[in-house]
Amino acid sequence: VVNIETSGVGSDGDDPTHLGEFGLIARLTQGLEPRPDVLLGVGDDAALLDIGAGDLLVATCDAQVDGIHFIRGVATYEEIGHKALAVNLSDIAAMGAEPRWALVSLLISREIGITDLEQVYAGMRALGNRHAVTVVGGNVSSSGGPFCLDITLLGTVDRSHAIRRAGARIGDAILVTGTLGTAAAGVLWSTPGEDRGVPASLSLPAREKTHRAMAAPSPQVAEGRALAASGLVTSMIDVSDGLAADLGHICRQSHVGAVVEAASLPLEASAREVADVYRHDPLQLALYGGEDYVLLCTVAAEKVRAALAAIAAVGGEGFVIGHIVGAALGMQLQLEAGQFIPLEPRGWDHLH
Amino acid sequence: VVNIETSGVGSDGDDPTHLGEFGLIARLTQGLEPRPDVLLGVGDDAALLDIGAGDLLVATCDAQVDGIHFIRGVATYEEIGHKALAVNLSDIAAMGAEPRWALVSLLISREIGITDLEQVYAGMRALGNRHAVTVVGGNVSSSGGPFCLDITLLGTVDRSHAIRRAGARIGDAILVTGTLGTAAAGVLWSTPGEDRGVPASLSLPAREKTHRAMAAPSPQVAEGRALAASGLVTSMIDVSDGLAADLGHICRQSHVGAVVEAASLPLEASAREVADVYRHDPLQLALYGGEDYVLLCTVAAEKVRAALAAIAAVGGEGFVIGHIVGAALGMQLQLEAGQFIPLEPRGWDHLH
Questions:
Q1: Do A137 and B46 touch (CB under 8 A)?
Q2: How far is CA A344 from CA A120, A166, A249, A251, in A?
């Protein structure tokens, strides 16, 4: 697990995993010279690039690796393709941008057949069609390693609409555009490897709902574009590493702190049911589970109602979960009884 | 080895490697709907995308996998980084475009240390600086498999300058912008695994020159832009799979045939020396070796002198190696004695 506050450089020998994903990328990309055509480079959900049009180009890439981001057999090949595109759509959504073009790089292993790959593409293309995204490039290579899909997704955004992680201000309300912890609940009951069956008491609807959230998330592209176009949002990120970790990114890059109200965290009944069956704290799922692929944003307090209306106007639902405070307070979790405990910005790290 | 003319669909069971790299991509991306913002999609060196600016966006992606595209120990980490960017620069060059922004996805394995990755990035960034390319996005994931670098490279090109594979016309001269077979000669003497040492008779300069061509190729970005800007070129591709295979792509997509003159193929002394020491036909290296990363283009016969001058003006060197004929003649190799033999469009396939 990465702690982004302490993932320093050079303190842990030569093993890249000791730096954490973000620390390693920061180290490898340090000293890159600023350029007028790069409005935003490494360190946000996506890059913002100036190609001299009215719109900016938005670019992001994310890989999905068998055994790390998905498990064949737990997820179908269609779901694997869906998810590989979905995680990139979510990054584009977090900039408030319109996704448009995908480049798909496949590393295939011996176990993968043509029909498997066709299902991967079917899942990817079905989700792409829903968001008017088309595949414009591809690359296939065999490898002795696990099956891997690496997608680069390109989009466009009006120059004045793009939303970054930096920009949250003291007093802003913190919103999420969907429920938290559902995907993590799916992982909780479906991860194989231990000799336990799934308890019969876990209902079929809860299994289906949490599996779907885990294996085939719905990126909130419409919500992201509506929020960006509204002009109400001061910062935005998608929740991939977990609420606490991703709120940590906003706080660090905006130089602010945050208070999250435990009682306000939206959890689905399905996630609560899984947590209950497995005697797991649902709050932990919501704060640290990750892979929610909802949007997390900040909005001036007096504009919360308008932001919720903008989300509702595209068929979504928004939830206020806390507010931004000064950096000196760090991140705090306010429990139902009223007391505060520090909220660590930890979460999922793809290097562990 | 893929035969692009015969890599049909579905004839070889469910193993994706039976389709070949191009056949597999064609199968997976079939039926993609045309869109006005995609001027060129899957099936050229790079995609041409319309973002509403004077320039078009050019996008390509290519992965380098340990043990397939490079061998750690044979290539240094700096060379690995250099080559991963170089192969993408070469694709951008083949469109006549200006490379600008790179997204770098790393799959790291247990053997790779931070200092190794820093050297990979040093090699990549040094080459990037030479071509004004900067890293704008990244992704790192651990995997149980081999070390892999997957780079997406974005560039821009004037709407009227972009050069495609389709466009060669009967009577056009065929040009290459550099020598052929040097990288393949490097593979010939440096590939480990057999219990043979390198013959003492192979000179150090020949080793150095062929190693460099194999491990750290020089993409011909200036040549590509100069040729595109000249308006003289009817089709262009970079030689990555091998001259015969890549000329095959131009012929297939331009609906023409080609005659290549064996005596005109430019080979370096270093490649000839390696071929001589290993009793290998140098012509085979030039035709099928691959990974040359020079540009292959076609030019109307009366404009050859101007095209060679355009290449020379940016410090490069061009060679006329044959001419375009009707599709019915297919591809022919004209030997020094004058007779013709069929030239098969085979070459390197990343799935084998």
A1: yes
A2: 36, 19, 11, 12
